Amino acid sequence: MYRSETCGELRIADVGREVKLAGWVQRVRKMGGMTFVDLRDRYGLTQLVFNVENDAALTEAANHLGREWVVQVTGKVAERTSKNPNMPTGDIEIIVDSLRVLNASEVPPFTIEDDTDGGDDLRMRFRYLDLRRNAVRKNLELRHRMTMEVRRYLDSKGFLEIETPMLVGSTPEGARDFVVPSRMNPGQFYALPQSPQTLKQLLMVSGMDRYFQIVKCFRDEDLRADRQPEFTQIDCEMSFVEQEDVISTFEGMAKHLFKELRGVELTEPFLRMSWAYAMKYYGSDKPDLRFDMRFVELMDVLKGHGFSVFDNAQYIGGICAKGAAGYTRKQLDALTEYVKRPQIGAKGMVYARVEADGTVKSSVDKFYSQETLQELRKAMNAEPGDLILILSGDDTMKTRKQLCELRLEMGRQLGLRDKNKFACLWVVDFPMFEWSEEEGRLMAMHHPFTHPKDEDIPLLDTDPAAVRADAYDMVVNGVEVGGGSIRIHDSALQAKMFEILGFTPEKAQEQFGFLMNAFKYGAPPHGGLAYGLDRWVSLFAGLDSIRDCIAFPKNNSGRDVMLDAPAALDDKQLDELNLKIDIRESEKH
Amino acid sequence: MYRSETCGELRIADVGREVKLAGWVQRVRKMGGMTFVDLRDRYGLTQLVFNVENDAALTEAANHLGREWVVQVTGKVAERTSKNPNMPTGDIEIIVDSLRVLNASEVPPFTIEDDTDGGDDLRMRFRYLDLRRNAVRKNLELRHRMTMEVRRYLDSKGFLEIETPMLVGSTPEGARDFVVPSRMNPGQFYALPQSPQTLKQLLMVSGMDRYFQIVKCFRDEDLRADRQPEFTQIDCEMSFVEQEDVISTFEGMAKHLFKELRGVELTEPFLRMSWAYAMKYYGSDKPDLRFDMRFVELMDVLKGHGFSVFDNAQYIGGICAKGAAGYTRKQLDALTEYVKRPQIGAKGMVYARVEADGTVKSSVDKFYSQETLQELRKAMNAEPGDLILILSGDDTMKTRKQLCELRLEMGRQLGLRDKNKFACLWVVDFPMFEWSEEEGRLMAMHHPFTHPKDEDIPLLDTDPAAVRADAYDMVVNGVEVGGGSIRIHDSALQAKMFEILGFTPEKAQEQFGFLMNAFKYGAPPHGGLAYGLDRWVSLFAGLDSIRDCIAFPKNNSGRDVMLDAPAALDDKQLDELNLKIDIRESEKH
């Protein structure tokens, strides 16, 4: 061992001991004949002292150390004259008597500090240096603790962690698969799993009863800010359960994690909210409930007063921003620009301030009497000093989603989205299907294995779009951290589901025959849930993106810029795989 | 919840309670007016009783239940009149008052019993039914407990589990990679990791200090009996350590696992054996030390007596099989055939029995005097009743490997390879390189990142083939369960290693530049080890193959016969990936 202790553990009680430390040079300070070196490792920082009067050559050597050099020292622990109460080791320092350079370092391309001078691209290219920073390392430590706690909890509840294969079959339903050519089966491909959904259902058929897995999943999607082509799921499934059983098991797990990892005791049951309610009052199936600011529908109040935008609208809705009447014209214009951005797509925004005397001044005063505006105020439950913001449109759902974005932005501007406050809820009663304009057919909102609500099963024949599912999402602070459903365990019902989704019986058999056949041999009722580990960790870590809780993430083009992957293959490799590259002209660059 | 308890937990103390159970019908027995049903789940079996006198319709329904139907019952726990001491629930039965069929089952294609009538192929196609068998399920339970214990142990030692990416770059050094075409980067491919070797080294450069991961690895090799294209590794790495530190940490872990999972207390330090010693005395770098039967070199004794086979041999070696002098001519012929099989490749075998009176009778008596044979006996330390088996050849290493196979076979025949006995050792001081006839160059015996022994570093320039490495394998019962090494952390030494391995500086930079560059920024001394999880579990479970400790294994052609993967892709998918299939004529079938 190159050390007798780490750089984080020496204390005043150790004074007088001979120790051996190893680590990285964080900083070298020369003060007169003294040289101070901060030595760093994962566990902390320890101050080393060299004194020219004790050993001139050794001190000279210390003066030549550079940032990030790796050194080993021996010396005696001494009490500091000026203690540093901000450092756990701040009471002591090491009077060094020998110094060995284990490895020199070139000057790193950015500083290894919490606030680094490295830009995103540089940090990713030198990710192994970026990970030396406390700010990043502690996210990985949190991730480790989180997976330990998840396993401890689920093990204590009788769940078995069972590894499912990574090389599976491709199932074009859902997102795009990553595929893997098989050399031994020429012309054929494996797929990497988008999730172990069907495999965990087979494990239920096999009587495993309670399964979980913390597992890599893969989706070949065009990447958005907070997506990675590979991501990690806490994947769970249980037999002989109803929705209530799954929810209570995993609400218990969530509370356990909050307590162990954040010290937050959540004693109340999580709120349950139907999907329809969430869409109506928050315009989202993952409402951020750290603040209220619920939607109020204003069709009755504002329609029919000659303001054609509202008069022609299918939906008019408002939110009340408490205490924001002081917003300037400039701020309001910026908000209008915000909702008009193509990503949001609103046509405009109407606002109304409630003055100190109770009168309402709006951006559409010429169309509305003070009387109507007072009705508006009453509907919005607005008080003097409040600001009312209103959107309208000819598509109710789209307008609600726009209003949702506005609500979230106002919450942000008003400081209502505190990262240290957590609002958890279950969104339930999701629709079974949603209409896809692109595909011209109904698509499964969760996936084709979701069980419809028993009472809605007759609607499958008459009005499938109205069928609700035994599906549930857990939402924390506006983030969907997990979701699941009770599954179909009956092969006839599963076949009907595929039919509604536009599969021919042959196609269904070809793609999901293994599952429907399995259901013929005694499949138990079952259901489950999958949590997104990356999202959970970033939520607990207070990160804006999942990237910094992943050791080696990919960029928005799916590249690992450190490894420079993906890359071209040798011709020999392509030959062995029976493949030829055939890049379409449009793709060439 | 469909049940109030599982099928494994009711005891005599529960008599009189009203319970609700759910599970699979294992067996239905009709005895007069009584019908007995064994209800099964993961946790056990419970006997259900139906009595025509109590409820004729209910009993009639029970009579119609088939094997593997899924049912739910309610009833009262009663004490059995004839108890079954072989079942944990054998003191009680359930007097059923309601029965609900949750799912019927077709007759399964094989019996769900420990000794099933299902052949291998059928079991794999219906793996979800095969997994219902106790014999298979308990392997997965053991695997779960093993990974829990590994994590608990390593967490307690300060290791962080850090996920490394699955989509990495291809590195043709080593085995063949599985690759993944990138749609977003046309013509380029990711590779699936053969192991996270370089990534874990980068984590050491990043100061993570102690890393582990239980992780899927991938090798596109032609499959042998005990290989899978995807397998699971317990991958570990530590900083600021020497070989001794790594060995003691992971020997501690092995002992912990033996104790927790098998109840075996291993108190002595594991034996250490140099690679050279292991090859000389056991003909293997993974000797099975459950029995001795060490090789004795017999050149001095048997050469120069006119037996041309031995006279021309480069190596003559024997083993002494205690008490096996009674082997018949037929048995000895079968052994000769065994070592002459092409997989082993010996030319022949010589034997010698030590008779009760001490005389030695051999298959080559006409060439050797009794005096020489007595010398042989002495050299072999053989006693009356022992059998001496001798192989020779013109290639020392090859002949030793043949003798190793003979030794293992004799150990098996003599019952010396007890699955409940465990002989653990470390093989150390591996050669750094081995000569590849195929490539016509030196290859790294472990991998190119292995640190040479400090005292052998000068030999890198003069006699690289003689250089030994700081590498170590843990061997249990003749199985290499893990291995590792101290790594190079100096970019100049790493560059020299690539040079010896025949890399041009450009090629080394292209493939491993990311690692050599990382070493320039303060890489700490580090080393580690990887255990093969599948092998460990099968060792603990007493399995002959790793297959039955894997939920959904692949067959020898790399196929998942249950999922029917791999399979052809849609043209649309190939198009998006800019690929064309180009099967060489020779591959078509």
The total count of helices of chain A amounts to 17
Rg of chain A, Å, rounded = 30 Å
What is the number of E strands of chain A?
23
Main beta sheet of chain A: 8 strands, mixed
> In the CATH classification, which architecture of the largest domain in chain A applies?
2-Layer Sandwich
- Uncertain stretches of chain A: none
| CATH-level-4 superfamily name of the largest domain in chain A | Bira Bifunctional Protein, Domain 2
Beta-strand fraction estimate of chain A: 15-25%
The CATH class designation of the largest domain in chain A is Alpha Beta
Which assembly state applies to the chains in this document?
homodimer
Shape of chain A: globular
Biggest chain contact? A-B, 125 and 125 residues
| Measured distance between first and last alpha carbons of chain A | 52 Å
Helix proportion of residues of chain A, in percent? 25-40%
Q: What is the residue-averaged pLDDT of chain A?
A: 95
Q: In which order are the strands of the major sheet of chain A placed? A: 6-9-10-22-21-20-17-11
How many independent structural domains of chain A? 3
Structural class of chain A, by secondary structure, is alpha+beta
CATH topology type of the largest domain in chain A: BirA Bifunctional Protein, domain 2
